[in-house]
Specification:
Layout: H1 11-27, E1 28-33, E2 46-50, H2 57-67, E3 72-77, H3 86-92, E4 96-98, H4 105-117, E5 121-124, H5 144-151, E6 157-163, E7 180-186, H6 202-224
Parallel strand pairs: 1-7, 2-5, 2-6, 3-4, 3-5
Antiparallel strand pairs: 6-7
Helix pairs in contact: 5-6
């Protein structure tokens, strides 16, 4: 799939592309809508907010962002950076570690702001983990994405809804050659500049977060061809990433 734009990408990003393109092509049929709604690199930074339905969907969404012509900078749970080889590649490619539910979480926001100010595309899963909604709709999201918006109110937020990756199931030789269909739809960028100067009260953070996730949910509903629920399911546990290094 040709890229819409061709910004420069470093060694580690291109290494990920070389590894992941054949893998994703072998396992999935990818069907994407409205990639042109992702702002071009010449338009500056962008926050890309996506629903999370599967442990494998990150590689698919990385390919989507790359195909739109942007270099993806994912905000990813910090534990992944401790994995052998993969963690090294994550660091080398400029991905952003997030320690969920800790005082260190603010550091990830600072790194994201720097990336956005450089004109990069920061990708975030506002739910913080795969959805726990029984029907796989987007669930009630954490407010980290809203905090990022308040730090960079002029940066557009691009809502992306995806569907299908959760049907892959576990790996087995029998599944080789049976590609699942993964679909994604890019919504119109959200202008949240009206929140410039707003204090990060719980009400404001929830309002911004729900506006973003409602836009994401609308894209999911379009893909599924059915009406979305009017309420977000709430996760039953709180996710905390403990520091494992010094």
């Amino acid at each position: 799939m040709a890229r819409l734009h061709k910004p420069k990408a470093g060694f580690w990003i291109r290494t990920w592309v070389i590894i992941l393109f054949p893998v994703t092509s072998a396992l999935f049929k990818m069907r994407w809508r409205h990639l042109d709604r992702v702002p071009a690199p010449s338009e500056g930074g962008a926050i890309i907010a996506i629903n999370h339905i599967s442990q494998v969907d990150t590689v698919l969404m990385a390919r989507l962002v790359w195909s739109s012509g942007r270099v993806p900078r994912f905000m990813i749970k910090a534990g992944v950076f401790d994995w052998p080889v993969i963690g090294y590649m994550m660091k080398g490619s400029g991905q952003i570690p997030v320690r969920r539910g800790t005082t260190d979480a603010g550091q990830s926001l600072s790194e994201a702001v720097v990336a956005l100010e450089r004109g990069e595309a920061v990708v975030i899963y506002p739910e913080g983990t795969t959805t726990k909604d029984p029907d796989n709709w987007p669930m009630l999201a954490k407010t980290g994405v809203a905090r990022l918006v308040l730090l960079c109110p002029e940066i557009p937020v691009v809502p992306v809804g995806q569907w299908g990756a959760h049907r892959m199931g576990g790996f087995s030789l029998k599944r080789l050659g049976r590609r699942r269909t993964s679909t994604a739809s890019v919504g119109e960028p959200l202008d949240l500049s009206r929140y410039r100067g707003k204090e990060p009260t719980s009400e404001t953070l929830r309002e911004i977060t729900d506006e973003i996730m409602s836009a994401v949910r609308d894209q999911v509903a379009e893909l599924r061809g059915e009406p979305a629920p009017t309420e977000f399911a709430e996760p039953q546990r709180r996710y905390v990433d403990k520091r494992t290094g010094s």
